[in-house]
Amino acid sequence: MRPVRRALGVTAFGINAYTADAPGDALIETHDETSFGAGRHEELYVVVAGEAAFRIGEEEVGAPAGTLLPVAPGIERGATAAAPATTVLVVGGKPGSALPVSPYEHWYAAQPAYAAGDYARAVAIASEGLADWPEHPSLHYQLACYEALAGHREQAIEHLKVAYANDPAAGVGRGRRGPRLGPRRPEPGMKLRPLAIQPSAYLVG
Questions:
Q1: Which of 93, 113, 141 corresponds to the end of one domain?
Q2: Nearest Cα to 165, choosing from 148, 149, 183?
Q3: pTM for the predicted model, two decimal places
Q4: Same domain, 30 and 110
């Protein structure tokens, strides 16, 4: 094991790396995160290089570089190397401890509905973030865009008012892809478009 967390001083989550030189070498010890000394962590295994052969519960999983494998506490897991110079990064934490998620995850989740022109659905999805981020300017800006596209003028203006009140620069590009709106108060007829986000996650390389 390579003690990444301790070496880098990371305190928000557990993170370590495991390496093996040759195929067949032990890589991840068999464990289920409930034994003495375990943190009962939910873990994400990221195969950085080489290839690993995982056993998760009763399932055998081939994991080439680029694979992401989430495993809940209580499920037995372990792995051996299936290729030379294999490295697996392991990120862990107590289930639920990373919440609330970042605001952008909510409008990221709404992107497919927005791209399909289902703006009411985009509003419904992104609005879920308001429970944790009721005053977040970027989230309200995105909601203003979706509401405007859905033809809900008054709702769009209300969201834009909250966005501006919490950040007068709300809507300015700031290096993000998408149109730039100047730092100004909401005005009737203002044209809005959401900040562009391109989903590109994958699980198996």
A1: 93
A2: 183
A3: 0.68
A4: no
